[in-house]
Each structure stands twice: as C-alpha cells, then as structure tokens.
Amino acid sequence: MDVCARLLFRPLAFAVLLSTAPVAEAWASGPGDQSAVFWALAPLRILSSAEIDIEVARLRAALAHEVPLSVALSFAFRRDARDWVRLAQAELALKPEIRLDRPQLIVVIDRAPQVQALALVLVRADKPWEVLGGVHVSTGQEGRFDHYVTPTGVFLHTADILDYRAEGTLNENGIRGLGVKGMRVWDFGWQMATKGWRRDGEQGQIRMEMHATDPTYLASRIGRTASQGCIRLPETMNRFLDWHGVLDVDYEHAANDDIRYRALLLRGRRPTLLAGNALVVVDSSAPGSALGPARAMVSSR
C-alpha cells in the first residue's frame, strides 16, 4: 500500500545524490562549468522551432534508451496520439488561469480503468501538440476501503511544496510503498478526492503524490487501478522524469537560492529545455469526455 490517503505528517526531505555523471551543458545558456555540482540557470527564454525539434529528438532517444520499450511502448498508443492532446486541452480549458505561455512538456495521466497510462505531451504554439511517449501507471482503486479515486484536474508542481525521496524501508506489511531508496516523490499537496469505497460520492482529502512502488510485490499491478489515490509509476519512468527534470522548471530556479532544493535534485542531472510544471489528470471513460464514449480507448491487454 502507499501512503497517499492518510498522510498526516510529511517526512523530512530525504536527499540522495545518486549519480556521479558529469554535469551536462548549461540549461538555457550554452556549455557551463563541468566542475559545478549544481546548475545555475539563465532566465527562461522562448526556444526557436529548430531548438524545440532538437530537444524533442534528444528526449525521444533518451526515453527509448532509459525506459525499456517493453514498458514504454507496450500499450503502443492504441489510441490516436491526438486523443491525448484533446483530453489534455479539454482539462486545461477548465483552468483558464493556468497559461502555458512557452513551449513545454506536460505529464498527462488517463485514470480510466481500461487505460491507466501516462503520456508525455509537448505543448507548443507554432505546431500541433505532440506525444513523445508514455507508460502504464496505476491510479486510485474503487471498491476498496480507504482507497480514493485519483482526482482529475490540472495540478501544478511548484516550489511552494518540497518533494522528497523514498527511504526504501519496509512498512508494517513488508512493502516499500514508495519504491526503492532514492526514488523521487512528486508532491502536489492536499486535494479533494472521491472515496472509492462509498456509493454516495462523498469526498475527502488526500495527499496527491506521484511516485514509484514496491518492485517486488506491487510493480506487477501497474496498468490496473491499485493505489490509495496517488499515481504509481514504473521505476524507469520515475528515473526519467527525475533525471530530465520534466516537471522541475520551478525547482531548478528555486535551487539557485535554497539549499533544500539543491539537495533534492539529482547531481549530474540533465534537465530538459522544455521542462514545465503541469500534471494533467483526465478520464476518457467519464460521461462528457472530450473523446465521447465511442472514442474512449478499450484496452487490448
């Protein structure tokens, strides 16, 4: 089990520097000091179309290398990639105050029971949005006590809340609920969610988090609803999002002035030029979905 539903006290940030790889070139301003431990970021700027294409090609190659194809592409986008875009745009339209005003990546989760998948979607103004790749995930399970339905919506990953890392210790059931030591836990704060064990739609608060899971006992459940409300990732995708800083645009800048964020972020990481901060949770099976009932993906697993 994970700790999403009844987390009353935040654990202290557990900083682990996992990599000894050299620091890559400076994030937005060309080659930097390779002896530096942490990045010093230039102000964000709008990338040219050519720069975006180069960075997308790099990320696609990295995804293919770092996330095994048997995991990353096993669901083979059995839905048209444009459907992921439609779903994300429909959810974002409900939050007009959130403006994606620069080319950036967003993480889109479809909580529909027959889908249970994540897609990395590139938001850009000069060309249609595109899907870079994805994996299966697990979201909140219905029909089980103390398990909440993962809420839909747009959740921003800001420096107002400090993430932490899994300690890799066993809970009372012998489970590493957040995965092995050092796995990243993205924290999106307290959110309202439907109690999955009730039929009246009653809601309660959960700590909305995205994290890995126990590699021995729970990883095999990824691809089915199984969590208490959080989003469970395969370990390989956890590392990919962490290493490339896909949701860390605010954290990278906070790290310039705050040692807590410098301690959390991986040494030697290579944050993408297209980093953003938006997690978008959709439900293609819901009445009124942007796809309509005829276009909701039916799993062939």
Specify the number of helices: 6
The residue ranges in which pLDDT falls below 50 over 5 or more consecutive positions are 5-42, 70-77, 296-301
- Could you tell me the number of beta strands? 10
Output the strand order for the largest sheet: 3-2-1-10-5
Largest sheet: 5 strands, mixed
Summing up helix and strand content along with how strands pair, one would put the structural category as alpha+beta
How many angstroms does the end-to-end distance come to? Answer: 24 Å
Please tell me what the overall shape is: globular
**N-to-C SSE string, H for helix and E for strand:** HHHEEEEEEEEEHHHE
Strand content is 15-25%
Quaternary organisation of the protein chains: single chain
**Cα radius of gyration in angstroms:** 18 Å
Notes on the structure:
The chain has helices spanning 49-66, 69-72, 81-93, 235-243, 249-254, 259-264, and strands at 104-110, 117-123, 130-136, 148-149, 153-156, 164-165, 184-195, 203-211, 231-232, 278-282. The protein has 301 residues and is an alpha+beta fold. The protein has one domain (49-282). The strands form 2 sheets. It has a 5-stranded mixed sheet with strand order 3-2-1-10-5, sandwiched between helices. Strands 4, 6, 7, 8 and 9 form a 5-stranded mixed sheet that branches. The longest helix has 18 residues, at 49-66.
Short description, anyone?
This protein is an alpha+beta fold. It has one domain. It has helices at 49-66, 69-72, 81-93, 235-243, 249-254, 259-264, and strands at residues 104-110, 117-123, 130-136, 148-149, 153-156, 164-165, 184-195, 203-211, 231-232, 278-282.
